[in-house]
Design goal:
Elements: E1 2-4, H1 5-20, E2 26-31, E3 37-39, H2 42-58, E4 65-73, E5 77-84, H3 106-109, H4 118-128, E6 132-138, E7 142-150
Parallel strand pairs: 2-4
Antiparallel strand pairs: 1-3, 4-5, 5-7, 6-7
Helix pairs in contact: 1-2, 2-4
The structure holds adenosine-5'-triphosphate (ATP).
The site of adenosine-5'-triphosphate has 19 residues, from helix 2 and helix 4.
């Protein structure tokens, strides 16, 4: 089933903005994808963005901001990024964040609820859709998860 990515991202971002309101975190949606479709499982893709945005809000400071971006790269893939300005992930923990039950810097995340499963699930969903996921993080710049997914851009004469 072709998934209209722009709309899906918009829906998840709106839902997350409501959830983030209590913490006064602003969710900024900068996705710019016109007529870009992803072949796959829409509930899974929704869950993928939900996990990344949920973490971004969770690990943001009160009153912080979270940005989601999505751009077409070339003709058949999109690059999506979810960026927060929280404390970042210690460098020594970065290689493990996609493992099941891994939680970085236990002392610091002790007061943040979580099971350590979210990113493992996100990783599975990305793999299932033949994409790639990666992370960049530092104390100064916060954390950015980058997801690359294969997409299709239908010609004008084809209706999906
Ligand atoms: P849950 O899956 O229940 O949300 P979780 O957030 O602990 O729990 P993951 O989403 O798998 O689990 O994340 C694994 C670990 O990676 C987290 O415990 C946290 O230490 C770190 N992490 C993930 N995203 C961020 C982020 N945006 N900023 C800082 N640390 C993060």
């Amino acid at each position: 089933q072709p998934i209209a990515l722009q709309r899906l991202i918009g829906e998840v971002a709106d839902r997350m903005q409501i959830k983030a309101g209590a913490k006064e975190v602003t969710v900024i949606n900068r996705a710019e994808l016109d007529s870009v479709f992803l072949m796959g499982h829409s509930d899974s893709i929704r869950q993928l963005f939900y996990i990344l945005l949920d973490n971004a809000v969770k690990y943001s400071e009160q009153g912080g901001k979270v940005e989601i971006e999505a751009l077409l790269e070339g003709t058949n893939r999109v690059v999506c990024s979810v960026h927060d300005y929280g404390n970042g992930i210690p460098e020594e923990d970065l290689p493990y964040v996609f493992e099941r039950f891994y939680r970085a810097d236990k002392a610091r995340s002790r007061n943040v609820e979580g099971t350590g499963l979210g990113l493992a699930i996100a990783n599975q969903i990305v793999k299932m859709h033949k994409g790639q996921i990666s992370v960049k993080s530092s104390k100064e710049q916060g954390t950015r998860f980058i997801v690359v997914l294969p997409v299709i851009q239908p010609r004008g004469d084809i209706r999906l």
